[in-house]
Design goal:
Keywords: NADP, Oxidoreductase. By secondary structure, the chain is an alpha/beta fold. The protein is built from 5 helices and 5 strands. The N and C termini lie far apart (43 Å).
Length: 185
């Protein structure tokens, strides 16, 4: 393993340990609305915030499905999470591809019957773009708005009715704001 990859892995492990210490929340039985049968889908869960959301949900006993546009990257993320002793499932999903979404929904129906939680985390950070082009801005809007909208529309029909009610969580960031960007033409 290269020195940079090893340092990144060490930093990620240290960060996960720190977050675990800070975010371990004991819930009493009357506060818990979920169980091991509660199914959560986290889009873009192969790294960053999505990765940690998936880890935290599994840590609280939920069944967690990670999605990633690139299945091999998703499988690697799942392996890393499974080292923590939790069970995860993974599926390829491109939130901009209608066929990918349809295949995912059918897989969910067949394997789980439905879901209880959808965490829309997949997205593109405008501020990390290498250019200020219209094409890149369109990619950001397509992913961050239309991709999220596509997922909500496709997943609502497979959300399980429950006493605690199903949940949709949309992750965003103030970094996605368009103010402060130059207009280079």
């Amino acid at each position: 393993m290269s020195g940079k990859k090893e340092r990144n892995k060490e930093r990620r492990e240290k960060r996960l340990q720190e977050i675990s210490l800070l975010r371990t929340i004991p819930y009493s039985d009357d506060q818990r609305w979920w169980s091991q049968e509660t199914v959560a889908v986290v889009t873009g869960a192969n790294r960053g915030i999505g990765f940690e959301i998936a880890r935290q949900l599994a840590g609280h006993g939920l069944t967690v499905i990670l999605t990633s546009r690139n299945i091999s990257v998703g499988i690697e993320a799942t392996k890393a999470l499974q080292e923590g002793g939790f069970s995860y499932d993974v599926h390829q999903l491109d939130i901009l591809d209608g066929e990918s979404i349809s295949a995912f929904v059918e897989w969910i129906k067949q394997k789980y019957g439905g879901i209880d939680i959808l965490v829309n985390n997949a997205g593109v950070n405008f501020n990390l773009g290498f250019d200020n082009s219209v094409e890149f801005a369109r990619q950001v809007v397509d992913n961050n708005y239309y991709g999220t909208k596509n997922m909500i529309k496709a997943m609502i029909p497979v959300m399980k009715p429950s006493a605690a009610s199903a949940r949709i969580v949309n992750v965003s960031s103030r970094l996605g704001r368009l103010n402060g960007r130059r207009n280079d033409g």
